[in-house]
Backbone:
């Protein structure tokens, strides 16, 4: 692609400075103007991209230099730029914050990689001229970062704004492209360290409309678009083609996607479809059972603990998942999906709600994260999806811990090189064709994952069509012990 595609990156001095609200407002405002804007989120995040998609009217994609190679990031952005009027990227944390003192994997490094103009969102609470010093420091800290403008947030009164504007324009030579007043209440509710997902927000669309109204009133929409138009052509790089459909016939993969399980990267679902899968969304809260023609199941993360009672009460669906696993259905589960496959979830209030019961462990919620950050895994056990000896990069963020602590005889797929995992530097519970892990993977960083899941689904489909259907019965809740047959049994039967 040779034509310059207008693009913009909103960054901040720290997390919680208001850039997500401004990103959503800008996306919704430009969308209302009829512009096709493809949104992106820097870093491992599911919730902000879900809000992006609601505001922009199209899926949002993640850009993470830890999980992906630089040429993959460039190729992904180039592919979406061909169908867009513009691109809007939301940074994460502070502009220069990375994994180390060199700022490795920071928003600033991403901005340089993509040659994207940066607009800095600054929380101006109880500060005036000092804000100009902070912005000037960002300009000089790395002159290669294309810092092109500033948005002021948390403005107290007109005099406050006037001093800020004059200081920044005088000392930094940058345009002030918006100034938002201090709001009396939050537009978007928060949970843990981020927003509540839109699937759980009773008035999600109204919240986006509020953000749009703020953007239209307080942001210089045309000035921001002009800055985005200053972007040069995207850097050259390989063309990211979808994985060709090599399956002899499409397989059907169920995606449990409801208000309890919402954490799926857009690119993961696209990778499965490109590899030959027909994706069917299911609700663990409402569906009575699994479809009879299912060839595999993907259970992402989310907040099953906030829906534990409803998940537990849908016993027929839980039992259908357990029976399917016993019948060797390929199942890949991440974080919340791992918890769902356990014996029970124990809430902060001390209540215990039975889950699928495939693994003999309870998942006990805590008030502080038990695992938070990037992970590196080495595959040390034979499993349905990853070759032994391969190395995977992902991320984890969970408040639950496993109980009882798995013994040395518990079969797991991964050795944890970086991160917490399930415990004992291990992760990835195994049972027949099931792999359940705390780690989230991105398809671009784990390119063999989607083809492997589709391949296992194809094998299961051929076996399923060759055997008579089995009647599903509802036995009593399983009495699980620590000697439950983890990892035993044939891959297919």
Residues:
């Amino acid at each position: 692609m040779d034509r310059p595609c207008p693009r913009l990156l909103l960054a901040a001095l720290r997390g919680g400075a208001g850039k997500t609200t401004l990103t959503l407002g800008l996306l919704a405002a430009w969308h209302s103007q009829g512009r096709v804007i493809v949104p992106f989120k820097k870093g491992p995040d599911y919730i902000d991209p879900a809000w992006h998609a609601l505001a922009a009217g199209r899926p949002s994609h993640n850009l993470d230099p830890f999980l992906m190679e630089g040429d993959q990031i460039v190729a992904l952005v180039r592919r979406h730029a061909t169908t867009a009027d513009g691109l809007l990227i939301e940074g994460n944390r502070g502009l220069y914050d990375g994994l180390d003192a060199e700022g490795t994997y920071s928003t600033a490094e991403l901005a340089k990689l993509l040659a994207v103009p940066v607009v800095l969102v600054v929380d101006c609470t109880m500060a005036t001229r000092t804000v100009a010093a902070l912005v000037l420091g960002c300009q000089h800290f790395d002159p290669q970062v294309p810092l092109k403008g500033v948005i002021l947030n948390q403005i107290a009164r007109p005099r406050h704004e006037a001093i800020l504007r004059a200081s920044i324009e005088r000392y930094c030579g940058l345009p002030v492209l918006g100034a938002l007043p201090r709001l009396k209440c939050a537009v978007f509710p928060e949970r843990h360290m981020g927003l509540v997902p839109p699937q759980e927000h009773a008035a999600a669309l109204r919240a986006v409309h509020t953000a749009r109204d703020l953007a239209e009133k307080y942001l210089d929409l045309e000035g921001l678009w002009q800055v985005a138009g200053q972007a040069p052509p995207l850097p050259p790089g390989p063309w990211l083609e979808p994985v060709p459909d090599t399956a002899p016939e499409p397989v059907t993969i169920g995606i449990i996607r409801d208000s309890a399980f919402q954490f799926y990267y857009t690119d993961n679902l696209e990778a499965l479809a490109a590899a030959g899968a027909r994706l069917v969304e299911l609700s663990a809260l409402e569906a009575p059972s699994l479809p009879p023609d299912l060839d595999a199941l993907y259970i992402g993360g989310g907040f099953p603990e906030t829906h534990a009672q409803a998940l537990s009460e849908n016993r027929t669906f839980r039992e259908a998942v357990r029976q399917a696993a016993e019948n060797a259905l390929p199942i890949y589960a991440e974080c919340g999906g791992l918890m769902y496959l356990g014996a029970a979830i124990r809430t902060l209030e001390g209540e215990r709600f039975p889950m699928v019961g495939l693994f003999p462990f309870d998942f006990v919620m805590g008030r502080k994260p038990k695992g938070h950050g990037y992970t590196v895994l080495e595959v040390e056990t034979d499993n349905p999806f990853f070759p032994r000896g391969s190395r995977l990069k992902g991320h984890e963020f969970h408040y639950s811990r496993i109980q009882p602590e798995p013994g040395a005889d518990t079969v797991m797929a991964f050795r944890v090189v970086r991160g917490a995992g399930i415990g004992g530097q291990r992760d990835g519970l195994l049972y027949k064709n099931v792999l359940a892990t705390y780690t989230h993977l991105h398809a671009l960083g784990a390119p063999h994952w989607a083809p492997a899941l589709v391949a296992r689904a194809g094998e299961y489909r051929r076996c399923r069509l060759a055997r008579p259907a089995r009647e599903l019965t509802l036995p009593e809740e399983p009495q699980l012990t620590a000697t439950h047959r983890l990892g035993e049994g044939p891959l297919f039967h």
Remarks:
- The CA atoms of residues 242 and 274 lie 6 Å apart.
- The chain has two domains: 7-228, 251-466.
